[in-house]
Amino acid sequence: MTPELSLGLALAIPAFAGVLISLLGRFPNIREAVTLVASVLLAANVAYLVSVTGARPELNILDMGGGLSLRFELEPLGALFAAVAAGLWIVNSLYSIGYMRGNGEKNQTRFYVCFTIAILSAMGIALSANLLTMFLFYEALTLSTYPLVAHKGDAKARRGAAIYLSILLGTSIGLLLPAIITVQYLAGSTDFTLGGILGSEVSPLVSSILLIMFAFGIGKAALMPVHPWLPNAMVAPTPVSALLHAVAVVKAGVFSVLKVVTYIFGPALVQQLWAADALAWIAAISIVLASLIALTKDNLKARLAFSTVSQLSYVTLGAMLATPLALMGAALQIVMHAWGKITLFMCAGAIYTATKKTEISQMRGLGRLMPWTFGAFAVGAFSIIGLPPFGGTWPKLFLMLGAIDTGQAILIAALIISSILNVAYLLPIPGRGFYEKPAEETLPKKTPMLVVLPPVITAAGATALFFLIEPIRAFLAPVFDAGVPTP
């Protein structure tokens, strides 16, 4: 198999799976087998792509002239995001089967079809060679996940989905698309090029305005104040929440911000822009403020949603600092947060499946009855907090070092305060589950193995990632270390 063919298969596998699933809706076992087989095939294909990333293969689908094309190219940052999405699709597919069946959810065929389209869109974003290609798949991701957010079909779900769609389409059409058109006009191209394509002929003022348009136009990055779509999307079933927070949507957002900074502006330019300093402070404020809001939420999914808003801003902060260490920290946050946060959401879904409880105040003593679920939650929480030996340790370390590099060591305070708040709003959940006396009410029903096993797997992954830091860092080094100046 050639690398070019493998690029095409990364898009074809989920697309073909979606068609098959829609045709096999009357046969649930076969339909779900197709989902699992497709996820395994995609992961194997992406693993091959990771192994050949150094060759930088390309796949040109359509040349529109004038420097515009629908084109894909493999590079380390995109390969890493593709690996995260493809790998977690396997675990989330297993979990989805257990959750959807365990809760008797309706419209399961539509659910699985939309899921495959979302994964296809994530692959397109990860492997895009230019802004135009990225934008098309970015919008496809929004449209394909809208039915997932509205899945339950009640008034609350419809309202949450409407907010989700209006904010994400509003920011992308109102800010992101004009920014892309402006880049095409100024640079004559939207191709992702290491070091950036915006030259010195573009004034600092114009570059700063463009950077702001990209930062807020990529609404999936959930930078305050364009974040409300994320907590409102928590009306969706928990497998969708896991998709939004770990596998595809928010990761596509912060990945796009990081890729635009690295390949359109270039770190050297970003370090010179006043807008980058302003956006770094907005990200720092988002990190702390969202954590404070999370602390006030009794609903478990709402608390985790605001936690995600905070954690996503780590990536934006690293991108705006734009030193090699900060950029590395931002990229590592995409990986480490994905494994930690999907663990937390799947545990929330397991608790709901077994007890129908959604409020943290109702969960006292449940850890004694559901030790694997609450144990996995504790591991995911430790990783999000940044405690060793868990993967979430490394992004915070690199981001702190990056802040020192820029002379803005004061920004480290936001990371430290956030970590303290992480402890305050996450650890009481397993603490209450294990150390308080269970309520005198019906014991949890038997939880499907496919709901319990996936978060245990991802918790183990969040731990293993701590020890895999060197190969990951070395894989990304050609992007962030090659000729990137520091102040």
Automatic annotation (TrEMBL):
Family: Belongs to the CPA3 antiporters (TC 2.A.63) subunit D family.
UniProt main location, coarse: membrane
Compartment annotation: Cell membrane; Membrane
Entry keywords, A to Z: Cell membrane, Membrane, Transmembrane, Transmembrane helix
Membrane topology term: Multi-pass membrane protein
Keyword check for Transferase: no
Domain NADH:quinone oxidoreductase/Mrp antiporter transmembrane residues, every copy: 128-420
InterPro entries: CPA3_Na-H_Antiporter_D, De-COase2_CS, ND/Mrp_TM
Membrane spanning stretches: 6-24, 36-57, 77-97, 109-126, 161-185, 205-230, 278-300, 312-332, 338-354, 366-387, 407-427, 448-469
Matching PANTHER family: NA(+)_H(+) ANTIPORTER SUBUNIT D1, NADH DEHYDROGENASE
Organism: Hyphobacterium marinum
This protein's name: Proton-conducting transporter membrane subunit
Entry superkingdom: Bacteria
